[in-house]
Amino acid sequence: MAQQLNGKSAAAAAADHLAFVEDAISDLKEQLTDLKQSSNMTEAQYRQVNDSITELLKTLRGREDDILSMIDGNPYSHYNHVQSTPQTNVLVLASMRTGSSFIGEILNRNPKVLYAFEPIKQLMLKDGAPTLPFRGANQLRDFYACDFSSPDLKKYLDFYNSLAPPSRLDYVKAWVNKDNCKLKLSGYGWESCKRISADGATKSCRKYDIRAVKIIRIRDLSMFTHLMADPEVNLRVLNVVRDPRGMMSSVMPLHLNNYQVISKRVADRVLSVDHFNKNPGLRDRLKAYCDSMLRNYLLGQQPWFPRGRHMVIRYEDAAYDPRGMAAKIYSFLGVSMHGNVLRWLDVNTNIGDNERDLNYIYSTRRNSGQTAESWRRKVTFDLAEAIQNTGSCREFMNTMGYRIVHSAAELLNQSLSLVSPRQF
Questions:
Q1: What pLDDT is stored for residue 1 in this prediction?
Q2: If you ran DSSP here, which 8-state letter would residue 402 be given?
Q3: Distance between CA atoms of residues 345 and 92, nearest Å
Q4: Which secondary-structure segment (H or E) carries 51?
Q5: I need a labelling partner for 214 at 20 to 30 A (CA). Which of 32, 42, 225, 379 fits?
Q6: How far apart, in whole angstroms, are the C-alpha atoms of residue 318 and residue 323?
Q7: Do residues 221 and 236 touch, judged by C-beta distance below 8 A?
Q8: Virtual CA dihedral for 377, 383, 388, 391, nearest 10 degrees?
Q9: What does the mean pLDDT of the chain come to?
């Protein structure tokens, strides 16, 4: 019988304690920033201590699953048997600041999944470059075939090998293990990791029945229809969308800060239509987002489009019901869900936000239900109206079930949800 701690199982209590420790480490990083500003600490000293704290935090997050799996009475253990399935390849297709990292983690936390983060970025091509869609699609095909000897996929592998152990966790978590990395003498954290050869990466890749990639630099679904129709690739696409008003409320603070890492306090600044009008790049980004995501949806409705290969995911639905969305995703993929996924969701979607956390904007650790429509406090009605009237955004919003607001009162009325029930 599972040991109980204050009405919770040992595993659930341990998960709470891990979250508490992570928050404490994050607070320590903020105190370090304050100390630097109020003392004679040099930049070199600050970077050394800050890097050590960052590595400790990443190490703890990387070992959450291992720690919890060793606890008796683990309430998630009965999910851990994943039935063998035919090779399944997954593409998380999205745009910037739409919740794709959250959806990606639902896959990444499954030890049966080989998950790669943004390999297309290492092609070193600008967004909109004419060759990017073609080379990106070819690189993905090579990844799903586990051909790491291909020139474009080798660029990703070379980049991965250049990273320190904690950063490798952000790109291919599955390869940071005792086979490839050396533990520190303390037993906590990785001291170093060896280079992974193309042959080694290929052999490792072939052990996984599920291979997944997340990209935000190619948003055109039509570039992947040949992979979806090819029975050897068996590609399934998770197309993540978000209310464009919420997406822009997240993009704009980054844009106004030159896409540098920012804290929650900065991310939550109130945004006006002046910010939008004075930065043409924001309007261009918004128009491209609405156009591409509407086009993707309409493409998926065509009678000749591969059936059962494309799933539209509204970020808001995942935020309000993370477990339910995870179940839908794994059902769509035709595989069973691992307990690590549910454990990660339980720990990481019900925590408070640290307004000074400099990693907040890129973090997947949030109170997801509060995040779904929190943008309404940050956007003025004039800005919301400008977003609604840009390009095809109004048609996209109507198609996706995002309610149009006609007044400031509607925008601020928290009892009125702007996300209508919708089946895709």
A1: 36
A2: B
A3: 18
A4: helix 43-62
A5: 379
A6: 8
A7: no
A8: -140
A9: 83
Distance CA 326, CA 318 (A): 8
Please enumerate in sequence order all residues whose Cβ is within 8 A of that of 232, keeping only pairs 6 or more positions apart, or say none. none
- Of the CA atoms within 13 Å of residue 309, those in its CB half-sphere come to 23
State how far the Cα of 239 lies from the Cα of 93, in Å rounded to an integer: 5
Start-to-end CA span in the chain (Å): 42
| pTM of the complete model | 0.79
In DSSP notation, 124-162 reads: ---TT-TTHHHHHHHHHHHHHTT-TTSHHHHHHHHHHHT
Of residues 219, 195, 396, the one with CA closest to residue 294: 396
Cα separation, 289 vs 283, whole angstroms: 10
Q: Indicate the DSSP class of residue 338.
A: P
- Residue indicated by tokens 């290969």: 309
Average pLDDT over residues 24-32: 59
Model confidence pLDDT, tens digit, residues 300-346? 999 999 999 999 999 999 999 999 999 999 999 999 899 999 999 98
CA–CA distance, 369 with 323 (Å, rounded to integer): 12
**For the residues 187-216, what does the mean pLDDT come to?**
93
At residue 360, the pLDDT reads: 43
Token pair listed for 225:
């229809």
Residues 373 and 78: their CA atoms lie apart, in Å, by: 34
Return the structure tokens found at 417. Answer: 């949800």
- Give residue 123's pLDDT: 94
Residue type, 349: T
- For residues 91 and 237, is the Cβ–Cβ distance under 8 A? yes
Q: What is the CA angle 169-21-53, rounded to 5?
A: 55
Is 422 a residue whose pLDDT tops 60? yes
Tokens of 30: 């903020």
Q: How far apart are CA 395 and CA 402, in angstroms?
A: 10
pLDDT at 28 over 70: no
**Least confident residue range of 144-153, 219-228, 314-323, 357-366:** 357-366
